[in-house]
Amino acid sequence: MTIKIPLEKLREGIQYSLKKSEEHLVGAEVLIERNLLSGAVALIEFAIEEFGRAQALREKLRKGSEDVERSLFSSHDYKYEKAWTVLPEELKTIYEGTFDTAVLGEATLGEMALGETVSGVEKETISPRTRLDATFVNYDEHEKEWKVGVPAEKEKLEIIIKGIREHIRSF
């Protein structure tokens, strides 16, 4: 389903989306300075989504199409995917750590084979799901643990912010 947005309004929407993306990046920097990294992850994800909105609108403008998908206003995943058609994949990693596979039992390794890694490197990437995990408290029934944030590295978040800003400037 689509809505009609005049071409001139598409240009405005691009400008507003890029400005909002930059605002989220500023907020993320403030949180990083205070070592509130999960909050920074959430704002960076919002910045990515707004950048994705700008990208989707730019695609329509380049085609001369006024028909814009409604999902641009309702789907976090849609905007996220649009952003990564421009942003480099290496900006997705917010945490990368190692673990000793000798310490893990067979059951844990088997479970991990279904998930992220078994190579001794654990990665956390930014996504709409990560934004939720960073923002809300949740209880993991399987692990019997409360989840109150996401692992993130200050340096990686700063790299992401810098990378998004470079793409905003060159937009």
Draw up the topology in text.
Blueprint: E1 2-4, H1 7-33, H2 37-63, E2 67-69, H3 76-83, E3 93-98, H4 106-114, E4 121-125, H5 128-135, E5 138-140, E6 145-147, H6 154-169
Antiparallel strand pairs: 1-2, 3-4, 5-6
- Please indicate the percent range of residues in DSSP E strands (runs of 2 or more): 5-15%
Subunit arrangement of the protein = single chain
Structure summary, number of beta strands = 6
Total number of distinct structural domains: 2
Q: End-to-end distance, in Å? A: 27 Å
Residue-averaged pLDDT: 89
What is the H/E order?
EHHEHEHEHEEH
What are the segments in which pLDDT stays under 50 over at least 5 consecutive residues? 100-119
For the biggest sheet, the summary is: 2 strands, antiparallel
Rg for CA atoms? 18 Å
Notes on the protein architecture:
The chain is α+β, with helices and mostly antiparallel strands and 171 residues long. The protein folds into 2 domains: 2-88 and 153-169; 92-147, no CATH class. It has helices at residues 7-33, 37-63, 76-83, 106-114, 128-135, 154-169; strands spanning 2-4, 67-69, 93-98, 121-125, 138-140, 145-147. The strands form 3 sheets. The chain has a two-stranded antiparallel sheet with strand order 1-2. A hairpin with a 4-residue loop joins strand 5 (138-140) and strand 6 (145-147). Helix 1 (7-33) packs antiparallel against helix 2 (37-63), helix 1 packs antiparallel against helix 6 (154-169) and helix 2 packs across helix 3 (76-83). The longest helix has 27 residues, at 7-33. The two termini are 27 Å apart. Mean pLDDT is 89; it is low at 100-119.
